[in-house]
Predict the 3D structure of the following.
Amino acid sequence: MNDVLQELFAIDGKVAVVTGGSRGIGRMIAEGFVHAGARVYITARKAEQCAETARELSEFGECIAIPADLSSQAECDRFAAEVAQREHTVHILVNNAGATWGEPIETYSDEAWDKVLGVNVKGVFHLTRALLPQLRAAGTQDDPARVINIGSIDGIHVPMLETYAYSASKAAVHQLTRHLAKRLAAEHITVNAVAPGPFPSKMMAATLEAFEEAIVAGCPLGRIGRPEDMAGVAIYLSSRAASYVTGAVIPVDGGIATTK
């Protein structure tokens, strides 16, 4: 029975790409993949930090850094071309790179909307499209290639902070996930989204510093997310166990967005 379970949830030998993989949720996922035996490519804007994370994770397996700023289509295409030079197939693409912006409604600027939507929505679309040849080459009917988009519970419920572009962008990511899932299913590519709640990350640092006690008190499971929580759902979605799952948005939030 153990051998059956190990095979069902195995991702060893697969090639994975994790954007925003140098820190936060992206690093949690990349580290989980490396420990599970996948060859992992990570990207982030800051080359030094990206390379340092790759060095650290390479102590446990294969992790390669290719820095890129995925807010532009040109950079998405360049990054995809570099991956394609090294890999004929990409079994798993995790679109995690993201940006947020908080500001009162009276002064909320076009710059905020352009930056946040450019990374969080357009970047997901552009990179998925750019890596389609490698995803198509990897997928089979029994074991499709996987695209995992990182949304947010802020795209499911209304957040308490004035992060208008961020919450709108994450709702857009959830709908884009469904749209891509329908389009790509026939090509043996599944597309799902994970909607994280509060996890320790640079993006969440200020919020947790100010409101962690209240957030924990309002979480049915009574805690902040842990790295293994995020790694676990990503490994599941990448394994044979989830080969019949597509178009889903899975909250990983201790029940915050789904039980109230």
Observations:
- Residues 20 and 97 are 4 Å apart (CA to CA).
- Residues 2-251 form a domain with the Rossmann fold fold (CATH 3.40.50.720).
